Amino acid sequence: MTLQQLRYLLALDHHRHFGRAAASCFVGQPTLTIQLQKLEEELNVQLFDRKAKPIAPTSLGITVIAQARAIMNEVDVLKALLDEESDSVEGEYTLGIIPTLSPYLLPLFIKQFIDAFPQVKLRIKELQSEDIIAGLERKTIDVGLLVTPLEERHLREIVLFYEPFLIYASPEEDILQKKPLLPDHVQREDLWVLQQGHCFRNQVLNICDAETYTGKAGSSALPNLSFEAGSIETLKHMVRNNLGYTIIPELAVDPVVDARLVKRFAEPQPAREVSLVVNKTFSKEQLLVELRERILAVVPPEFRKNDRFMGVRWR
Fold this sequence. Notes:
D-Maltodextrin-Binding Protein, domain 2
């Protein structure tokens, strides 16, 4: 029995598909299949019901998988103890980042970080918040860059900054004339939002207290149109074509194109708390220090003054 076989076992339990499990381990499917067969032969037990769709662990398999997970957690603890002896920034890491943050923040700092630390191999995955949280707990993701607070007992949050929410509206929308602009002025029937699964959607609906939101978002001038977008850029394009308004994070603002379309809320401005998140067993402290410093160097300094903002939760 090898640690690699246990990794394959946990990967198959997670993906419930041989091809996807193999891909997540960066091996071919035959390699993973053969190693799991060897593990079953050594233990003299069938770990998975291969006739089930999707495949599923047997009752004994569930017990073995639980023990394998405990073993791999202890291995991680041992590695962490050894890693504490080194402050060097090197090695392979997986960074998970949410889609409403990655196109606006990543390009600002990632090249400088990679250039500064050529010994780091960084694999970046754009994922929904819940997928990042699950990956951090399973340790398939090393570092998350997402919106907090999460209040997950196995995770540690390192707050970076507070990013204000802004109204983004076509010029003829009355909301641009509100002085001061308050969250109560946002009418959910006029508001374009992201589709379900995005934490940003939840925050936007929380800003306008839309507990009974039905999904019929859009301009009241177009009552026969309902639309939920998959990206902030899609929402912006809708607005730029004189279709209602939306709410966007400040990093998504293009100063040249968007200047006449955005308006700030009165202080305290609604904002999202952006953090680095890791499993509590993660020990490469210097990596987190370097990531934090480079991110803070590229965001507006006022983002760090949380007394100007009102944090908006998403869960």
